[in-house]
Structures are given as C-alpha cells and as structure tokens.
Amino acid sequence: xxxxxxxxxGYALKQAIMKHLExxxxxxxxxxxxxxxxxxxxxxxxxxxxxxxxxxxxFGIIICGTGIGISIxxxxxxxxxxxxxxxxxxxxxxxxxxxxxxxxxxxxxxxxGLACKIVDTFLDTPFSNDERHIRRISKIEP
Length: 142
Ligand code: RB5
What we know:
Order of helices and strands: EHEHEHEHEHH
Mean pLDDT: 98
Helix content: 40-55%
Bound molecules: D-ribose
CATH architecture: 3-Layer(aba) Sandwich
Largest sheet: 5 strands, parallel
Distance between the termini: 28 Å
CATH superfamily: Sugar-phosphate isomerase, RpiB/LacA/LacB
Low-confidence stretches: none
Shape: globular
Radius of gyration: 14 Å
Number of domains: 1
C-alpha cells in the first residue's frame, strides 16, 4: 500500500502517477492536496511521512515543484528516508543502498513519462540487505 501526497505544484503529476498506479493495480491513499489552489508543501509531506513511519503504508510518494521542500519535510520525521530522484539510477540505488521508504519527485523537473518510470523502479527494487548498508543506515538517525 502506498501513501501519496503533493502540494499544488505537484498536483498534476500526482494525478498522472495515481492513474499509472491504478493501471498496474497498485493500491494507494491520496493524502492531498486535492486541487491546484496554492498550499504549503510541509502539510502534505509530513502527512505522508507520518503514515509511512507509523507502518500504515509500505512506501510514500511525495511531489512538489522541485521535490526539495517536501523531501526536506519528510526527512524530519523519525524513521523516514526520503529520496529525491530525477532518474531511474538514483531510484534503484536508493532502494538498494538506503532502503528509502519515501520517493520525492519534482513536478517542474521531471516529465510524466520519466516520473512513472522512476516510480516503477523505486517500487520494484528491493533493499539489498547487505551488512554494510544496514550498518550505514543505522548510523543515519541520531
Ligand atoms: C511552490 O511554489 C514551490 O515552492 C514548491 O512546490 C516546492 O518546489 C518547494 O520546494
């Protein structure tokens, strides 16, 4: 199950990603925003991050204009490893190496087609479970 959220800047891309998830039969909950009216990205980044950190969702997908503000927000929530990805290599590597549980996207940075490929790569790549990566991840949180 996936938690998805965006601000107004990410709203249109979020609609496209939800359609893409539906086409694959992936279940998700949309945490808003629900229109293109101007709003504040931390409200949506935090809502998704908290739901993932609580164990209610396996993964989160968060989108704002750049992906930066919303990923900074999500990474303030304990237990969240949010990765801002603009390419499939990074999406694969962050699952393999960082066991990232939230994918952040910049709607003004990546197009719809690439964003959907990044989503697929992120969701389909398992964590490596390598000892060195487990050790490094354990050193991230204070
Ligand atoms: C909104 O204009 C924009 O600041 C926001 O979507 C995001 O890019 C912030 O990091």
